[in-house]
Write a structure and sequence with these properties.
The structure is a homodimer of 351-residue chains.
Chain A lengths: L5 H16 L5 H14 L4 H6 L5 E3 L8 H9 L4 E4 L5 H14 L4 E6 L5 H10 L4 E5 L3 H10 L3 E6 L2 H10 L3 E5 L5 E2 L7 H11 L4 E4 L5 H9 L4 E4 L1 H4 L8 H8 L6 E4 L6 E4 L2 H11 L4 H8 L3 H7 L23 H18 L1
Parallel strand pairs in A: 1-9, 2-3, 3-4, 4-5, 5-6, 6-8, 8-9
Antiparallel strand pairs in A: 7-11, 10-11
Chain lengths: 351, 351
């Protein structure tokens, strides 16, 4: 799948030198050496699809992933995504233009399809000739052919095998399969990454990008074992130096302990967040059997902006994944990419 | 960690023959051959702890795992567990004695510590000189020293890093860390296997057995990537030929599709089950904000026996994990062990 077998290569290279010293080239070993060199150049279907170095995609996240984060991830050899979910069409255009200026590497835009003025956003993508779009929260059948006709690579985010098959049928190039442990909006079936990835990978014949609970090389390797050929990382990049989230939010996330996030608001759209005063209000409303409309009233105050962008840790909606409990410091996007790749290689060798 | 590198071994063995043909032994390759032979014999800390061939433990499961299943798994090279949770002390004694007669391999007993007549069960374990005990659903500090004094290997099942550290402090030999996707009783924090295993493995210095969502070689490899050195498999063995579950229950489980299980009864003890009429009753009670006592009334009818052992698919409690959606046939315990190990090795080579 991913890559090279350095130790074996080294041993066989050493052997070749010895064999040459005795004027004897062992054909078996030479053949293996050739194969080894070939596998070194091998990429996953995901690195090939996006023409990137590492199969790490930074998730598009409201109030976190503007041009600065996307460009930093792309410059580090991953794929950065501008999260359009918290942007007006004009702001999205500005971010795309700034991202182009900040990197000559491929980057993309994450577009929630349920956006109110979705046509304006789509026009921006077409005007700016964005080459990669990740769609989510809507029906991929509606827009995929339009994006493909414009020459874009189209990926759709799903939370179930059923939706993965629908996305494939709509003509997308790959799917992001996102498990229950992921931060922010999430599926109703609550299927975890461990169960979702092998099921989706077995069902579709397009590449699968795993998401949910992935912020380390260990987790990336686990995702590959399950059948993914790339990973989408959210929480770790949400608290990176280049994330546009408020410093207080970042600090709160890296202090988060196991069990402090919860999937809530299941009567509306399920969302994973850190338990705080806002969550207690939701919880109180649900305990007293509040209606969906009453819950909407609690929500209708720009809660995610308040929490993530403005740093109101009590009244804001602090969207983040379970993996937040493993995050211990604010790092640059490049450090995150490098640390994931190093750990991935080291753990793979130790298995 | 686990294993052997057969392909490399074969190539190097072939090379040794060639080298011998030319009366030349390549010292580099010979050294590697020696190392390879050594690694072939290497086991994980879990296979060493239990003196078993494969690091696969069959979960103790109410109404499924009597002596027949436990002996079959142990005979196949894994570790079988008799699930004491649905047995009287006398019945447990009978199952232990039958298991001893059916296998000369190591096996164990899973003992929920909250059992009403726990002292009687413990006396049976001591009388019968059971060597391995997996404790769950209670405080490991209460009984671990008693078990250790009797020379037993003691493992405790946890759903959080905090409890894993408590179990380690109580003196257990290893922990089972069980994620949200697991069937039956489950933790309140809802941490998934993907997030729980690396956190527990980083926190404790005893071996970690991963549970929740593991029914295939891919998932076992993912668990190893996350830091486990063994896996506990429940759902797949619950529907094995040797499971004492009702045939109708087994059939229902292998027909289960993604999203059909849910973690419910969170006001009492969270449990993952298949959605059916019984679940709808619970759901209805929770929607109308029923108290814990009202929920207990719904439950107080031997629901899990009714569902799993008697095959009442409507009124029974059908406890099973999310991985049930991946199970497609009733296989023998030996087939399950072999298929997991074959896939584990094959996927490991393909990474």
């Amino acid at each position: 799948m991913y890559n090279s077998q350095n130790l074996i290569g080294l041993i066989l290279y050493g052997h070749l030198n010895i064999a040459n010293h005795y004027s004897l080239v062992c054909s078996v070993c030479y053949l293996y050496f050739v194969i080894w060199n070939f596998t070194r150049l091998m990429q996953t279907t995901i690195t090939q699809l996006f023409n990137i170095q590492h199969p790490i995609i930074q998730a598009g996240m409201v109030w976190c992933s503007g041009w600065r984060l996307a460009a930093a991830v792309s410059n580090a050899g991953g794929l950065g995504l501008i999260g359009a979910g918290s942007m007006s069409a004009d702001l999205l255009r500005e971010h795309i233009q700034k991202c182009k200026a900040a990197t000559d590497k491929p980057f993309g835009v994450n577009l929630p399809l349920l956006y109110a003025h979705i046509d304006q956003h789509i026009q921006v993508l077409l005007d700016e000739q964005v080459k990669i779009v990740f769609t989510s929260a809507g029906n991929p059948a509606t827009y995929t052919s339009k994006f493909k006709a414009a020459g874009m690579v189209v990926i759709h985010v799903v939370s179930s095998t059923k939706f993965a098959l629908k996305a494939q049928q709509a003509g997308v190039d790959a799917v992001v399969a996102e498990g229950f442990e992921a931060g922010g909006h999430n599926g109703r079936e609550e299927t975890t990454t461990m169960c979702l990835i092998p099921a989706v990978a077995a069902a579709v014949n397009i590449p699968v990008i795993a998401a949910g609970g992935i912020g380390s090389g260990r987790a990336m390797l686990a995702a590959f074992a399950l059948g993914a050929s790339g990973v989408q990382v959210g929480s770790a990049f949400a608290v990176s130096a280049e994330s546009s989230a408020h410093e207080l939010f970042k600090k709160r996330v890296i202090e988060t302990t196991e069990g402090e996030t919860i999937l809530t608001l299941k009567k509306l759209t399920p969302v994973r967040l850190i338990k705080n005063t806002f969550y207690e209000q939701v919880q109180q409303a649900e305990t007293t059997c509040a209606s969906a409309d009453e819950l909407k009233t609690i929500l209708s105050k720009g809660r995610s902006k308040k929490g993530i962008f403005e740093g109101d840790l009590n009244e804001g909606e602090l969207e983040i994944g379970q993996v937040s409990a493993q995050l211990k410091s604010i790092r640059s996007a490049a450090e995150i990419v490098q640390e994931i790749m190093s750990e991935f290689e080291a753990v793979k060798k130790s298995l």
